[in-house]
Task: inverse folding
């Protein structure tokens, strides 16, 4: 293009966090335990008990977000603060906390964007089988009802489930169950189906309530490249793209499981039990938009069929191998990497957005994207994070290119608004515009300090895009 289109005037420039990674206060004011509180996590890094203590700092933090110029702030609600799933009692203190967060957002002119479920299943449900137990689906609907009743007339953007595909394909990424055993593949795909049904019923419930806002799923979506021009690599790459991304979204958006995914499950005896009520539920619920978390692309080659196939997600080799006979991950010489080994590929975001829009033609909200690094607090109190600024600049440019291509992207909410605990790599892996002064092992005063990227993003938002 000779010239790029401008970002729309009402583009939602924002940033994201999740409850368990930011709030801390893990047992305060009636909050019950979630799987995150009980699962096993690496012992040498921070746990989630205090995190960034957003629970006690939310006012100060949202004021900083206003100074940053955020138009939108994405946070998740902890189910375990809202309902005691055992007694069905509602915890008024939990409801009041999120009401204060929402009030503070509006007071500061920030649009709250709410994730209903970000990895933190109530532990009581987990003990009863978690998503393998149909009661969990009913419990989720009860929870959804409570949220819509409390905040439905205020919140304009709802996200149902964060990264269902991570939960199912990389279950160990959010912790290991106490007995050290991850669910079997068959169990995981039964859980997957249950989550999809719960989500579809939530879409339907939301629309029946005639609320003024919009609701959508939030998937981790990643475009892929085939490693070579080999036709076998092309089939493997298509396998990967379907099984890792489209299969989740096809069910959520089209209301029907993807054909290749169904065949893949049947062939391995992993096909879930699906009732006719489930089939109907999937058909009846549909989203208004699609949210994606985008970090990296993958490069995929044909399986070697010898057990050496590796996963396309850095750090997860122990958790999920490539699928023998289906695909394996390959290196891509054309992309960079973060200090944590995650592929950096801004053009991959443009490609991901195009493919997503091609396939479903729904508006797109980018709910995560960011650069994890061990930032350093200098003696003079500054934090220089030029690599994060470069990463975000390049990704914002890619979004602008996608908008110029004609893709309907209506917001960008990088991960993370403020430093939070990483899913399994502790507090040293930071993503925020605002530094939280603590380490993995020392809480210090949890002071908030603006990074260089804070001042840079402030300018981006003020100008409605890059210079
Ligand atoms: C996404 C999750 O997968 O990636 C976030 O939704 C997570 O919860 C983010 O923090 C970055 O991953 P990590 O492992 O570096 O914290």
Result:
């Amino acid at each position: 293009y000779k010239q790029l289109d401008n970002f729309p005037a009402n583009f939602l420039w924002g940033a994201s966090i999740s409850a368990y990674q930011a709030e801390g206060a893990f047992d305060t004011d009636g909050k019950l335990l979630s799987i995150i509180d009980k699962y096993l996590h690496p012992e040498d890094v921070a746990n989630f008990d205090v995190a960034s203590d957003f629970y006690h700092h939310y006012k100060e933090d949202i004021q900083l977000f206003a100074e940053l110029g955020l138009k939108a702030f994405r946070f998740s609600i902890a189910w375990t603060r809202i309902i005691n799933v055992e007694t069905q009692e509602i915890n008024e203190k939990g409801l009041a906390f999120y009401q204060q967060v929402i009030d503070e957002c509006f007071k500061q002119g920030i649009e709250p964007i709410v994730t209903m479920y970000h990895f933190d299943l109530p532990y009581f449900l987990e003990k009863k089988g978690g998503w393998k137990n149909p009661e969990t689906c009913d419990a989720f609907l009860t929870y959804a009802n409570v949220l819509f009743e409390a905040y439905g007339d205020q919140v304009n953007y709802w996200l149902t489930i964060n990264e269902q595909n991570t939960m199912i394909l990389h279950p160990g990424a959010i912790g290991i169950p106490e007995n050290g055993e991850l669910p079997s593949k068959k169990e995981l795909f039964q859980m997957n189906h249950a989550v999809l049904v719960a989500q579809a019923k939530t879409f339907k419930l939301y629309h029946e309530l005639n609320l003024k806002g919009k609701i959508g799923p939030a998937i981790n979506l990643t475009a892929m490249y085939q490693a070579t021009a080999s036709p076998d690599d092309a089939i493997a790459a298509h396998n990967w793209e379907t099984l890792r991304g489209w299969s989740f979204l096809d069910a959520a958006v089209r209301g029907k499981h993807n054909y290749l995914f169904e065949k893949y499950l049947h062939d391995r005896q992993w096909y879930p039990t699906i009732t006719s009520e489930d089939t109907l539920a999937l058909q009846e619920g549909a989203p208004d938009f699609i949210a994606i978390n985008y970090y990296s692309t993958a490069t995929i080659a044909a399986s070697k069929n010898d057990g050496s196939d590796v996963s396309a997600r850095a750090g997860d080799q122990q958790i999920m191998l490539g699928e023998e006979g289906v695909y394996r991950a390959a290196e891509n010489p054309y992309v960079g990497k973060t200090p944590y080994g995650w592929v950096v590929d801004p053009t991959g975001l443009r490609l991901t957005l195009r493919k997503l829009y091609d396939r479903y033609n729904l508006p797109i909200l980018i709910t995560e994207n960011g650069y994890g690094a061990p930032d350093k607090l200098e003696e003079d109190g500054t934090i220089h994070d030029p690599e994060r600024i470069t990463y975000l600049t390049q990704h914002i440019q890619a979004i602008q290119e996608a908008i110029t291509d004609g893709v309907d992207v209506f917001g960008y909410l990088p991960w993370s608004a403020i430093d939070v605990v990483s899913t399994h790599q502790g507090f040293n892996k930071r993503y925020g515009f605002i530094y939280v002064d603590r380490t993995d092992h020392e809480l210090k005063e949890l002071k908030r300090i603006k990074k260089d990227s804070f001042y840079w993003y402030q300018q981006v938002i003020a100008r409605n895009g890059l210079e």
Remarks:
- The first helix runs from residue 19 to 22.
- Residues 314-321 have pLDDT under 50 and may be disordered.
- The domain at 12-462 is CATH 3.20.20.80 (TIM Barrel).
